[in-house]
Design a protein that fits this description.
By secondary structure, this protein is an alpha/beta fold. The chain has one domain: P-loop containing nucleotide triphosphate hydrolases (Rossmann fold), CATH 3.40.50.300. It contains six helices and ten strands. Strands 1, 2, 3, 4, 5, 6, 7, 8, 9 and 10 form a ten-stranded mixed sheet that branches. A hairpin with a 2-residue loop joins β6 and β7. The two termini are about 35 Å apart. This is Nucleotide kinase. It holds the Pfam family NTPase_1. Keywords: Kinase, Transferase.
């Protein structure tokens, strides 16, 4: 490809529902048979306080606990959270560089200070951004946005602020990028000359598409989560 596919960055402050927004966008795209890989990490509360995160592999719908505030000598400590080795291995496998012939969209929820310090998903992000990649969606806290863009040299970020953005419009923009990616893969694999009017139109998002995904989507995409930060 002559240029890299875009990286959509869903951003906002702590507690502004970045993961919830991402969840809805993914539900719409999966409803259009987009092949999604990566992870989403809904948080959970205990006594009204964020106490941990669950990790979901978007390609399979499988779950693994990623971290909690409960001390554990087996775990990597980052801030006040203890990251389970099983959760880290699970996530690193899910974030391995995808086969471009089998992946339309890569998701990383979320990229933050731990990655900027070289931990958690930092190595996977280095590998994902080192070569041409499918369109990606990352979630990033607003105060870290510019640092993350500079750290991974994201040349064409599409910033989506949850405070003002529309889920539907974001999903449409993602689908446009996915369709361009699919076309690029098709024409690079089959070098045939194009004729006027040959461009395949991307399917329009249907107004009645379920925000949680189609019946054939992984079960996790049909669940509802509370706000996250």
């Amino acid at each position: 490809m002559s240029r890299r596919a875009p990286v959509f960055i869903i951003t906002g402050g702590q507690g502004q529902c970045k993961t919830t927004f991402l969840h809805l966008v993914i539900g719409l795209t999966v409803g259009l048979n987009v092949r999604v890989r990566g992870v989403i990490s809904p948080g959970y509360l205990r006594d009204g306080r964020r106490s941990g995160f669950t990790l979901v592999d978007l390609a399979t719908g499988e779950h693994e606990e990623l971290s909690s505030i409960d001390p554990d000598p087996r775990c990597e400590a980052h801030g006040r959270f203890y990251f389970r080795p099983e959760g880290l291995l699970f996530g690193r496998r899910a974030l391995a560089p995808p086969d471009p012939r089998e992946t339309d969209l890569m998701v990383v929820d979320e990229v933050g200070r731990f990655e900027l310090q070289g931990g958690v998903w930092a190595e996977q992000l280095d590998r994902l951004t080192a070569h041409p990649h499918p369109p990606m969606i990352w979630t990033v806290r607003r105060r870290l946005l510019h640092t993350v863009v500079e750290r991974w040299n994201i040349q064409n970020p599409v910033v989506v602020d949850v405070g003002t953005a529309s889920v539907m419009e974001t999903a449409e923009a993602v689908m446009d990028a996915v369709w361009e990616w699919r076309e690029a893969q098709t024409f690079s694999a089959v070098p045939t000359p194009s004729l006027p009017g040959d461009r395949i139109a991307a399917p329009a998002l249907c107004a009645d598409a379920a925000a949680g995904g189609s019946p054939g989507a992984p079960a996790i995409l049909r669940r509802r989560y509370g706000p996250e930060g």
